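Possible regression after last week's pipeline update?

I re-ran a chain I had predicted before the update to compare outputs. Posting the input and the new output here so someone can diff against the archived version. Not blocking, just want to make sure nothing changed silently.
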Amino acid sequence: WEAHIPDFKEDDATWKDGKGNGIIGALNYLESEGLNSVSFLTMNVGGDDQNVFPYVDYTTWDRFDVSKLDQWEIVFSHAQQHGIFLHFKLMEFENQGLLDNGGIGALTKLYYREMIARFGHHLALNWNVCEENGEWGNPVTPPQDTPERLEAAAKLAYLDPYDHHRVIHNGRKFDDLLGHGSKYTGASLQTGKRDFRNVHKSVLLWLRRSAETGKSWAVATDEPGDHEYSLMPDVSDPDGANHYDARKNALWGTLLAGGWGVEWYFGYKVPHSDLSCTDYRSRDRFWDCCRYALEFFEDHTIPFWKMENMNTLIGNPENDVNKGFCFTKPGQVYVVYLPKTVRAELNLADADGQFTVQWFNPRSGGALQMGSVEEIKGGSSVAIGEPPAEPDQDWVVLVKQF
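New output (post-update):
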């Protein structure tokens, strides 16, 4: 994290004569960009990089390195003090069967207990049982099946007095983990298309399927895109550091599906990959787009917790893939994301009264702007007009009753 040593501040936490300044500085940079989450593995013995584990050495799995864990706590505490959510990924695809052959035996229970005892007091976190979990592809260690998957969440729920959010990652789909008999409270999604086009529909799918069981999940995206490229560095983006596909399909696609968050994976075929990135400024331009999205919801008091996805309210000549996204509290507020060059009508047939139409620029943020239509009336499908500028670019439209 040498690139972030200049981001370290004089009064920040450190240890052993200035160690850790780079990683602490990296968290400062994330906060300065308005980002609020970081995802990390705590055990990848046998995994992709094989350099993160809480133990005294690589092959002793019942003795913990308390000095190392104290250093982790300094980092986690600093993140929490700076508004950064902690996404603990406890295992990964390659090592899901390393402890207890994938079962929830003595070694796994000990590992869970240690993580919860040391770090469970933090306010904003979730436990992710395993990245790319289950039998799919060619697992190196025994894959976890339904009983192990369910027991893992049950054990975390039993041990964690703070009842933190409990999720699991695909790999294998989640149908066997839904319903009131499961202790999972959500899913963490990976998709596989370079242009991120599967993100929106994947979030919608698991929100719908969980709701149908009577126990709705909170669904987030943590590895959008493909494993080779995903979120590329600004200098590598084919759209000139504009990151259009990531902004449209992954960022706004997740949020306007009703997803509770989106994190970003860095593909292995680009510089600053998932295994080599120690400079978050490699995606500096895109972090701005993320901040603009958060500011949109915060600054304009969007009641997102009361809203639902209703893309069918958007009408235009384009096909379903390109027409955009609609997130709404029907009759009161509508957030419509329109891709490049798309114009739309909004179906207000079941709404009464007058509505304002204001436009938000997801590429540069800023204040709401007026387009060619400033007010519309409920009772029918109505055109929401032209944006205030750059009609060939993507826009977000806020329609509110007044």
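Follow-up from reviewer: compared with the archived run. The mean pLDDT is 96. Marking as no regression found.
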